């Protein structure tokens, strides 16, 4: 559900310089947390919206609320724990690779040197032209290892030390996102249809607001942000319509 | 939910060489599709498992089946469409950046040249040492642009031309993954508890099989694959237990 995160660019110079700076930085530092927050919120609002809309076809608000709550907790816990484990794995993976790179630089410097030449050869830079850069990199093992991590393995250093913060941010964002489509069914305990229509209206407005807030935060153009919000609205609507149809069809054809 | 995808390494030389080769290639070409498949399946099996377990506390298989089906369709559609839109956005983003880089190389070659010097300076390579590489890159605009895309912007060329294939793979994987925990409730229409226990057993076995198959496909060590499968089992169990508890608590305290 990262569909609408990548900043799109306008062609005005000032804006494009700003967004490029933000772009280059976007995978570093606390950008991670904002990304987790956006992904969690976007998923959290879409799936519970579609699920509750589907269950609303049964005409019982109680079932919608219980199903919605179960999804909200199941989804936010599995997303949050999943993000936490992913961050831990990524960090371990980076550290393993870094340790290996250090070993190789120390134990097989000639082979590592060849790898730099190979890297440059891919861009049409021959051995003779690359020689002075290789010599400069070899002068400082620390820089050399960093160069290999960035350009040979193309691994970014995980910036956040506390993987559990990432998990928490994503889980909580999912939970908050999922509350919006669910709350209207609490408000209309005896009229599922009112709940459904209010849920559609609330979810639609939150998605639009979300798209625009995101635009302010990451420097996307307003037009792109609006397009992103509309896209999410379409995804949510299609999912909700299909879930509604399936539940209705199965409910009327099956006597369990 | 990408927690268990990153290959972890053993220290034997043969295996590490193999896994490095796979690692370097893993974000290119059809690796994307395998990744979509793994993420979709992992999410698909966890959330529907937890949701159906939660709803099973109501003691009515019909509700579990309807809730599970609604989640299955809502989740697979929003994940599939989401992945499709993400792939489209990523491709557009890459093409926009590439076009801009071409413009800059043509219109402001001196500034782009400075950017290469800046890039090398970050790794302790001074202007004099970098000069010959800069000259070699400038000799071929095509290579130069590719170098800037890879090293300055660190953007990988989206390899798959058909974004809809990515979306389809992820959506279908989610759907298939979600069928496993759901089917047992179809099998025991009059005994939710039997359904729940069978669902737990089936989901546990599928997660273990999934972990090992993944290990064979991407070259993870057996130990890491087993650890990954166990982690997913824990995530699913915690989510299921909380969903079960919440549904039970709300159901007994609330008369809608």
TrEMBL record, chains A, B:
Annotated localization: Endomembrane system
Membrane association type: Multi-pass membrane protein
Assigned GO CC terms: endomembrane system
Listed Pfam families: VIT1
One term of GO molecular function: manganese ion transmembrane transporter activity
Keyword Membrane on entry: yes
InterPro entries tied to this protein: Ccc1_fam
Amino acid composition bias (Polar residues), ranges on this chain: 1-10
Segments for region (Disordered): 1-20
Top-level taxon in the UniProt lineage: Eukaryota
CDD domains cross-referenced by the UniProt entry: CCC1
Entry's Gene Ontology BP terms: intracellular manganese ion homeostasis
Main location group: membrane
UniProt keyword list: Membrane, Transmembrane, Transmembrane helix
Membrane-traversing stretches: 32-51, 63-87, 163-187, 193-212, 224-247
Family in the record: Belongs to the CCC1 family.
This protein's name: Ccc1 family
């Amino acid at each position: 559900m990262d569909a609408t995160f990548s900043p799109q660019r306008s062609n005005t110079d000032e804006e494009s310089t700003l967004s490029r700076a933000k772009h280059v930085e976007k995978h570093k530092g606390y950008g991670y947390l904002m990304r987790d927050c956006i992904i969690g919120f976007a998923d959290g609002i879409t799936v519970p919206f579609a699920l509750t809309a589907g269950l609303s076809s049964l005409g019982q608000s109680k079932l919608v609320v219980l199903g919605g709550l179960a999804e909200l907790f199941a989804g936010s816990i599995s997303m949050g724990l999943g993000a936490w484990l992913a961050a831990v794995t990524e960090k371990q993976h980076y550290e393993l690779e870094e340790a290996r790179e250090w070993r190789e630089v120390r134990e097989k410097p000639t082979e590592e040197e060849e790898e730099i030449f190979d890297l440059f050869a891919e861009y049409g830079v021959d051995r003779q032209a690359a020689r002075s850069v290789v010599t400069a990199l070899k002068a400082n093992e620390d820089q050399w290892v960093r160069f290999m991590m960035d350009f040979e393995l193309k691994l970014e250093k995980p910036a956040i030390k506390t993987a559990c913060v990432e998990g928490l941010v994503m889980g909580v964002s999912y939970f908050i996102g999922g509350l919006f489509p669910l709350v209207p069914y609490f408000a209309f305990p005896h009229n599922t249809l009112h709940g459904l229509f209010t849920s559609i209206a609330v979810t639609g407005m939150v998605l639009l607001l979300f798209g625009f807030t995101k635009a302010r935060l990451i420097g996307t153009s307003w037009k792109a942000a609006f397009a992103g919000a509309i896209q999410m609205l379409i995804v949510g609507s299609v999912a909700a319509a299909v879930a509604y149809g399936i539940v209705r069809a199965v409910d009327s054809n099956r006597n369990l």
